[in-house]
Amino acid sequence: MLEKENKFSEQIQKTFHSAKIEIKRSKRISVQLRSDLIPPFLSYAKELLDFKHLSHMSCVDWLEDNELELVFILMNYDTSIQIIAKTRIERENAQFVSLKKFWPQLETYEREFHEMYGINFEGNDRLGEFILEDWNNKPPMLRDFDTRKYANETYYQRPGREDAQNVRETVSKHSGEEVPEFAKKYSIRNIDDE
Amino acid sequence: MREKETTLYLGPQHPGITGNMMVKLKVAGDTVVKAETHIGYLHRAFEKLMEQRTWTQSFPIVCRICVPEPDPNEENLARAIEEIEGREVPERAKYIRVLVLELARLSSYQLWMAGQSGSMGLYTMPQWTVGDRDYILDLFEELTGGRIYHMYIWAGGVRRDLPDGFKGRVLKVMDYLESRLKDYDKLLFQNALFRKRAEGVGIIPKEKAIEWGVVGSPLRGCGIKHDVRIDEPYEVYDKLEFEVPTHEGNDIWSRAMVRRQEIEQSISIVRQVLDKMPGGDYYNKVPNPLTWRIPPGDAYVKTESVRGEFGYYVVSDGSDKPRRVHVRGPAYAHGITVLEEVLKGANIADVSFIMNSLGTCPPEMER
Prior knowledge:
The complex is a heterodimer.
Chain A: H1 3-15, E1 20-25, E2 28-32, H2 38-47, E3 53-62, E4 67-75, E5 82-90, E6 95-97, H3 106-117, E7 120-122, H4 147-154, H5 167-175, H6 181-185, H7 188-193
Parallel strand pairs in A: 2-5, 6-7
Antiparallel strand pairs in A: 1-2, 3-4, 4-5
Chain B: E1 5-10, E2 22-28, E3 31-38, H1 46-50, H2 59-62, H3 71-85, H4 91-118, H5 124-144, E4 153-154, E5 157-158, H6 166-189, H7 192-198, H8 206-212, H9 216-220, H10 228-231, H11 252-276, E6 297-305, E7 308-316, E8 324-328, H12 331-342, H13 351-358, H14 362-366
Antiparallel strand pairs in B: 1-2, 2-3, 4-5, 6-7, 7-8
């Protein structure tokens, strides 16, 4: 059933002994690696296993572990099997090597993660302002960046549109009509109380 | 004598630009020497916002990531949640999902035809196709309550069943759209001027296409047969019969030819779905959305949108909110890496033309 997936897993395990490999389902292989093994692994997967297509690269903040997880999702066009290669790096002063030589679009992902997670990708000369403009705060996708606090300090509320105001009650006050009984049940305040 | 190089800013306010983005062009005479994509005009921090919303509250956010074709986003998020949780979806819901995805695909083709023709000054086509698209939007309004953003597909199935008589109305619209194809052919696809403008322009070298991350019709326009619906069938695509057209040429003309044939395939898929749709439930009820927790895990799911592979990498830490939802829109590669390469040596007048053929859609680049 998972013949091809098993074959790839065995090949990877033989070459990267420390890799933790799991076949998640048909066409999905998860490979967990040490961060220094990611460049040779990507090169191996692309050139020798024919995983030529980079579907995606992602970053996940594991604040409680003080780590960032980098995820590379590759695809083999002949079998449509995808490898999800993951590694974790230190969260403070996060550093990683630029891998744009393998796939040019990695340059764009690295620019995004530099801006959003503060990772410095050595060898990428386009790191800098990308999506955000004049941003001099903490990288905003980090989980300890408080979006609500930032928004409250940066923007003002239009009178009558303050946060946590019960919209139905406000509308009913302005219109002079009572809030229907069924609607009272679903007000935000009631949900919080529960 | 070497021509003086000038910097031109195409967008963010320009009729030829494909949404809220800008391309900084260095030009020598009429020829582009270097192009740089600038985004950030449409960043709404959707991915960050979802980390602070419950799983169900994330659905009205994701559909806004693609205006012309929002439904792959809903379907992807729903399927990722279902994969992590191990939730089954009723067969009828899967058919309805495919129906919605294909209707969205058809409506997106209409907008592409409008954009591709409009960017070469053929303004009749946008009038026609945007008008014809409205018939599909009417169907969406009846089915989901929304014309553009539907919030209809969600974890466990779809939000409601098909209304009475809906099947007949969909078939009527399909018949109408099929009858319009000959008009589109006369005006656009068999138009000698279009062919002259599109052939040999916006070339993606076949040997570079996969490495650059090209997907969808631009990839099939390089003669590479790949379609997520065939290679990793989701929902009920494995029970439907359709072809994956390809075209050699690697240029705008090839992409247009591929899309023209795909319109016919989509109409055929819609008819098959309506014919084969079983009865039964349309929704496998999820627990209370306000307290619903998804077990820890991650999933990468993808659909074939009009512009290609639309992927979602979703991570759950076991809480009632996503740990991470990361969107892979086709435009992320098409609009930055590929566009910057393809525009080198292009004529200024072809820039918007090329962008439309690649489907450079800023909301999915910056989310």
